[in-house]
Structure formats: structure tokens, C-alpha cells
Design goal:
single chain; 332 residues; Protein Transport Mog1p, Chain A; eight-stranded antiparallel beta barrel
């Protein structure tokens, strides 16, 4: 996907038309200091400090995830503002270059710094494009993750609708990296790693031969609306050449709608020592979800409840309080 040079040209040409009147066919929306017109036909998810729009083309296996972040207090230095947003939203989740080549534009008191970086996750090549706006003591950012240049025109059209409010007050205060939350601890965000596993020993034969069975599976939900899922399993006699190993790796996008989460894979592959590698059918599933605190083990768990057992998650977990569900513990 040769879009890294094209996309910045398209976006920068439009992104700083911030104070000009726009002719739009859809109703505008506001998040903190930024006003915009939603991209038509995209799925919207509202989070605590962001709004996410997702477009998915299942036929061509392409997607675009657009995240609009609410404002924070500026550090007073636009380069520092950009570096902090780039680290949090691009470097950490996608392990890309920490010091990218940037473009800077200034207009009407606002400074926009933008950069892009290609990355690959589980064989899927994608591009991250970040725009950070700073001015009037505030900063905000817009992030796009896409795997096809077919989304360039709708993204450029979206950027044309943006207007920044010079007088609005940023809703969430800035905080130093790794600072603890100011309020008392509460349920964690969905963003992060959630998993579970089983292990058991078996005894067979008159000479007491030990065997083992172990499985592990986990989700990694990223703030930009992408996710990865990994399942690994082992069974057989310890040290035996006949032991069986299997691993499934999957990546895709997710969308939230109240207590529902829809997981849409873009690639899924299973590899075993007996059958080699094979691509799996892509299974889009909508679950009801909640994060529950289990006092007995003093731990949070992500509970996923679909209408039926899924191929991805396997058989339901035995959780008395949540029948016909899957339970994934928080992994720090």
C-alpha cells in the first residue's frame, strides 16, 4: 500500500481550513474542542475520551479506523504535545518509529503537526496517520489506521469538515506519563490484554506415564479500535515426539455500542505441528460485554456473552454468575 506520501498531501491540503464555513450534507457533531461531520455510513462508537468511526469492506478485507480524541491542556510546546500523542497512540500499540518525519502547518493561531508510519501486524500491512492540533493552551489529535488507499478520499472529505473552538475548555487534564488516576480505583478500560488458560496432568498405563494438556488464549484490545487474538494449545506425553501443538493468531477491528461489542477479524490463521498453516474462516461476532470484579480472587475479568459458542473462543467457560459466557482475566 503506497499511501504514506499521498495521504499527507491530501490531508494537509484540507486539514487547516479550520475557520472557513463548510457546506455539508450531514449534521455536525462536537467532541470537546473539535467540531466535525461524521463520515457517512461508518460505524460510530463513543468512548469516555474519544469517538471512533470504523469502515469495513468484508469483500476486499479492507478497513479504516478513525479516532477523534477529546482535548487536553497543552504542555506549552507543540513538539512535546505531538511527541506525547505519537507515543501513546502510535508507538506503544504498533511499535513504530518513535521519531517520525513530521509536517507542520500554522493557521489562525493553531499549529498542526502530522506524521504517518507503516506497520505490519500478523501479516496485515497498515498505515497509521496522526494529526495533532495545538493552540490557545489546548491540544487534541485525530488518528487514522487504514490498510487500503480507497479510504483516502473519505478521510480527506472528513478533514474538510473540521473546525476547532478557540474558547472551549479541555475536558480531561493533562497528566505526566504513568501517573496514577486521581480518583479512587475503578473498573479498568477494555483497552488492554485479557486472557485465560488451563493446564492438567493425566496418568495412564501400569507404569504411571505422565502426560499434560494446556491451553492459553487472550485478546489484546487497542485504543485505536484494532485487536489481536491468540490461542495456543499443547497435549501429549511429556517429552514425546507425538505431542501436539497448535496456535491460532487473529487480527481485526472491534466496535462498541453500549453493552455490545462486535469483533470483526481481518485475518485468522492456525498453525499446528501435524497440519501446518491454514487460513481460518473469518467469524464476525457480536457479544454483550461487561468488566466484573471477582472478590474471591480480587481480580477483574472481561465477560463476553454471545448468542452461541464461537469458533474463536471455543466452549463456554464455567462461571456460575455468567452462564453461557467467556471469562478473560485482566493481564497487566
Amino acid at each position: 500500500m503506497k499511501v504514506s506520501k499521498i495521504i499527507l498531501g491530501l490531508f494537509i491540503a484540507q486539514a487547516l481550513c479550520l475557520s472557513l464555513p463548510q457546506t455539508v450534507s450531514c449534521q455536525t457533531e462536537t467532541l470537546d474542542m473539535i467540531r466535525y461531520t461524521p463520515p457517512k455510513g461508518w460505524t460510530k462508537t463513543t468512548k469516555e475520551d474519544a469517538v471512533v468511526f470504523v469502515a469495513v469492506d468484508k469483500t476486499n478485507n479492507t478497513f479504516c479506523v478513525l479516532t477523534i480524541h477529546s482535548g487536553t491542556a497543552s504542555s506549552g510546546n507543540v513538539e512535546k504535545d505531538f511527541a506525547a500523542e505519537w507515543k501513546n497512540f502510535v508507538v506503544k500499540p504498533h511499535q513504530v518509529e518513535a521519531n517520525p518525519k513530521t509536517e507542520t502547518e500554522i493557521k489562525d493561531g493553531w499549529t498542526m503537526i502530522s506524521a504517518n508510519a507503516p506497520f505490519e501486524s500478523e501479516g496485515i500491512k497498515s498505515l497509521a496517520v496522526l494529526f495533532v492540533f495545538s493552540g490557545f493552551g489546548k491540544t487534541t489529535s485525530i488518528l487514522a489506521i487504514l490498510n487500503s488507499d480507497t479510504y483516502l478520499k473519505p478521510l480527506a472529505a472528513f478533514m474538510e469538515t473540521i473546525k476547532l473552538d478557540k474558547t472551549s475548555i479541555a475536558r480531561r487534564p493533562s497528566a505526566p506519563a504513568n501517573a496514577p488516576a486521581a480518583n479512587s480505583p475503578g473498573p479498568p478500560s477494555l483497552v488492554g490484554k485479557w486472557g485465560n488458560g488451563t493446564a492438567a496432568d493425566t496418568v495412564s498405563g501400569s507404569y504411571v506415564t505422565y502426560g499434560s494438556n494446556a491451553t492459553q488464549k487472550y485478546y489484546q484490545f487497542n485504543a485505536d479500535g484494532t485487536y489481536s487474538f491468540v490461542y495456543s494449545g499443547y497435549s501429549g506425553l511429556v517429552g514425546s515426539a507425538g505431542a501436539f501443538h497448535i496456535t491460532t493468531q487473529e487480527v481485526g477491528v472491534y466496535t462498541l455500542n453500549g453493552d455490545s461489542i462486535t469483533i470483526t477479524p481481518r485475518k485468522s490463521q492456525t498453525n499446528s505441528n501435524s497440519g501446518g498453516a491454514k487460513n481460518n474462516p473469518l467469524e464476525t461476532v457480536t457479544y454483550r460485554w461487561t468488566i466484573h470484579y471477582f472478590e474471591g480472587i480480587q481480580s477483574y475479568a472481561l465477560i463476553l456473552h454471545p448468542d452461541h459458542q464461537t469458533t474463536r473462543d471455543g466452549g463456554f467457560d464455567y462461571v456460575l454468575a455468567f452462564p453461557n459466557s467467556y471469562s478473560y482475566s485482566q493481564i497487566k
